[in-house]
Amino acid sequence: MQNNHNHRHRNGEENGEAHDNFFHYNEEDERCDEGAYECTHCDVAKFRYPDGTVRLRNPHIELMDQDILYHLALGSESHDLVEMFGDVKFVCMGGTPKRMEAFAYYIMKEIGHKLPTGTTLQDISQYSYRYSMYKVGPILSVSHGMGVPSIGILLHEIIKLMYHAKAKDPIFFRIGTCGGIGLEGGTVVISDDAVNEMGQHHYEVPMLGKPVRRPAKLDRRLVRELRALADPEDPYETVIGTTMCANDFYEGQGRMDGAFCDYSESEKMAYLTHLQSNGVKNIEMEVVPFAALTHHAGIKAAVVCVALLDRLKGDQVCAPKEVLDEWQIRPQKLVGRYIKRYLQTKGRISFDGHGSMAVKSPRRFKLVQQESETFD
């Protein structure tokens, strides 16, 4: 594809070329073509059908008799995924099942969604025993577990779910917790960039014995819209900055309280200070695959986290539970404001249905459940 517009795009990492300097890009490698760092506008055009539904970057799916979303206990022929999820506009994900169940109830109240009398929210993926998923009108609330592999698996299947459901222009949010760098506990961080522990802006996955790198990019316009919704009356700060993704909770984040530690306090502080000087506001364990896979799918996405501590002051989370519980609601409030404003603007504040099962084939439905229950 010829570059005939004014966007500047970073490349050089997908071809296995690692930059030597932390947070450094080789400007000579920038371009916009297939496989490079495309802009959001390019992605939407390439990875959407004309009606706004998701276009998968996997030609093999259409040739399959059935696509089993193994870790969600759903299937393209066992369930009527269009009936169940075709109206989904927002996919909100966070680490734990309890947090995402709480968010489902929170957003249900915020948008005025009513469940039919005598019913309650249903964990749609309860038979997977891996992830929990709740549907509130056009909103999915899903747990993604902890760390890169767990959220990577979920994203593959959620993106395929949006494809099978024919959901139009879905927006993904990660709502989570993190460690701040120079930020007080309770500060909300909206990620505008994502880097790994080496300061690289890509997600690397070994495929067929070779490393494949995909750019980790978040939607900048969505970042600005979220920041604009931060209330000046909020008793806490909301900031924008780069988020570092670690593959480990302890040594990978420079903590000194793990079972092992082969560095000194001064070395740890030098590393954290270096991150801070390069614009890193917080550390967590999912932003890079989240940004990379949503970008690769052409899906608008954003990450909003709350800092549970300032890593420049310590390694352990020591705030009382009631304080932590209140802090964890703060990212939910910001994302909730965005969703509520969007639905009010579109005139869609009330929805029927609550994510109940729509079985297409009873036989296949039972088989999918049994398959998902096979292993703990």
From TrEMBL:
Q: Which residues form the Nucleoside phosphorylase domain?
A: 89-339
Entries under Pfam families matching the protein: PNP_UDP_1
Q: Which positions does UniProt annotate for phosphate binding? A: R130, R174, I175, G176, T177
GO MF annotation, one: uridine phosphorylase activity
Q: Give GO cellular component annotations, separated by semicolons.
A: cytosol
- Residue positions annotated to bind substrate are Q253, R255
| One of the GO BP terms on file | nucleotide catabolic process
Family according to the record: Belongs to the PNP/UDP phosphorylase family.
- This protein is called Nucleoside phosphorylase domain-containing protein
